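1st attempt posting a full record on here, be nice pls
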Amino acid sequence: MTPDRRAICFGLGAVGLWSTVATAFKVALQHMTPLELMWIASLVSWALIGALVVRRGLLGEALRGGWRTAAWAGLMNPVAYYLVLFAAYDRLPGQEAMALNYTWALAMALLAVPILGQRLTRMDLLAGLIAYSGVWVIATRGRVFDVAFADPLGVGLALVSTLLWALYWLLNARDHRAPLVAQWQNFSVGVPVLSVLVLLGPGLQWVGGTGLAAGIYVGLFEMGIAFVLWQLAVHTVSRTAKVSNLIFLSPPVSLVLLHLIVDEPILPSTLVGLVLILGGLGLQQWQKAPATPVDAQS
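the predicted structure (as tokens):
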């Protein structure tokens, strides 16, 4: 198998896993709070990535340095980002939270202007206008001239999660830690913080077999294996554009799974809004240089 074909297999594996997590979020949140889900998933992911760090002989590197960066990066991701994202999923239908979360790439383009001194192109502005019109359609559930949102807090949380995720990657632009090392260090900071929050809040309590299984699934696949597969895809492929466009396969699959497993009716407004969001992302992706590296998420 050629390196590019292997990279595409890695990428398809990551996208396939990301397509299932919106459903896993909704199942888990039926049995526990966002904070409890975050704690279980982070603990599982920390253990999994830690095992990979040890297996690859990176533990010495992970223990020696990089903790100053991890101190703030771990508070952003996993703590702040996932708590806000799970809170959005707790309030909104999974299809809406998932679609709104896909605007993070456009949020990154906007935030890169003040943070990295980059300029917005006309295509960036057009892509943003198209995608955020899709956000408006979803937020109003098709009543585009009615400002009475069905759940303004849920919509706000979903959009704040995109800002946190975009800000995290922009601030990490100069992070020279190996990806696995960085991920493990960040979770090493995040897990103790989340443990304290759980003990001060709901406390340790049994969330049921289904809830526990869903939480473990989120930790293994959303925060763990999918991340590793995507990193392998990006670092193996000859041109990043060959795998970056695979992420567009995830939303339609997520919608189908939410409908079949969680029994969410697919709202026409979600379909229209998602088409606009993906159209905006497609325009933004189309103007990128072929070799520009990217990172992705659920």
